[in-house]
Specification:
By secondary structure, the chain is of the alpha/beta class. The chain has helices at about 20-30, 40-50, 65, 80-85, 120-130, 145, 165-175, 190-210, and strands at about 10-15, 35-40, 60, 70-75, 95-100, 105, 110-115, 135, 155-160, 180-185. The strands form two sheets. Strands 3-2-1-4-5-8-9-10 form an eight-stranded mixed beta sheet, with helices on both faces. Strands 6-7 form a two-stranded antiparallel ribbon. The protein is globular, with a radius of gyration of 16 Å. The protein binds NADP nicotinamide-adenine-dinucleotide phosphate (NAP). NADP nicotinamide-adenine-dinucleotide phosphate binds near residues 18, 39, 75 and 77.
Length: about 220
């Protein structure tokens, strides 16, 4: 993208969980500055100590401060999405918001899709943040793979959204992570099957004790 700064400021809401930690570490390793957000900034700072991240590349902050970033990832459980986003709406106006949230619930048999009135967790996110530029992505990459920093991720991530420029920006961020490629699956309304597919992948992973992802063939690398 012409004129794109090489080093972006990237925020995470609920960045203290495995998905936020994994993506945050990978993006920091790629040279970006990361604001790892939490409901409790002290918890975010404690998590960073655990991660032994390079000094300065990641900073632990409150969720509202994480919204000061240029691109903000949502990495909270679906059950926490509404309570997390509703008070932050104004802070995210015009921002690229990348939602990794899967509308899933869990019981002893594993994950299952949850029916969402808006259609998907990502479409609900778009309703909660009507002036943000929503991109649904990184649903189908296991945090375990992200957290093994010494290994390339080696998978494709399905991405969808209605803002073409925002998707292009997110695809560049994905490409900054070794062995990762974003594949544009189309409009935001396709997020439901992508989120549901994550339940299938998690079930496969559980059955075979692996951390499988998706590779789309036929596309030039
Ligand atoms: N884990 C994976 O491999 C993976 C892969 C792809 C996509 N995802 C998606 O990414 C999202 C995050 O996954 P995760 O495994 O990292 O989740 P998680 O560990 O369950 O939660 C992430 C963070 O969200 C915050 N949070 C938890 N409950 C909350 C509540 N009730 N209200 C507000 N904030 C709350 C917590 O941060 P604070 O306590 O610090 O505020 C927590 O550390 C999920 O929607 C998941 O479907 C996960």
């Amino acid at each position: 993208m012409p004129g794109r700064p090489a080093r972006r400021l990237i925020g995470f809401l609920g960045g203290t969980g495995p998905q936020g930690r994994g993506l945050g570490l990978r993006l920091a390793a790629a040279g970006h500055r990361v604001l790892l957000g939490s409901r409790d900034p002290e918890r975010a700072s404690a998590v960073l100590k655990e991660l032994r991240s390079p000094v300065g590349a990641l900073v632990g902050v409150g969720n509202r401060e994480a919204c000061e970033a240029e691109v903000v990832f949502v990495t909270v459980p679906y059950a926490a999405q509404r309570d997390t986003l509703a008070p932050l709406g104004d802070a995210l106006d015009d921002k690229i918001v990348v939602t990794c949230v899967n509308a899933l619930a869990f019981d002893e048999r594993g994950p299952r899709p949850v029916r969402v009135e808006a259609g998907s967790a990502a479409e609900e996110c778009a309703l909660l943040l009507p002036r943000a530029r929503i991109v649904s992505a990184f649903h189908d990459v296991s945090a375990r793979r992200l957290l093994h920093l010494d290994e390339p991720v080696g998978i494709d991530v399905l991405m969808c959204g209605d803002d073409e420029d925002a998707k292009a920006e997110v695809a560049l961020l994905a490409a900054d992570i070794p062995g990762m490629r974003a594949v544009d699956a189309g409009p935001l309304r396709l997020s439901a099957p992508i989120e549901d597919l994550t339940a299938v992948l998690m079930s496969v992973n559980r059955r075979y004790s692996i951390h499988a992802g998706i590779c789309v063939d036929g596309l030039a690398r």
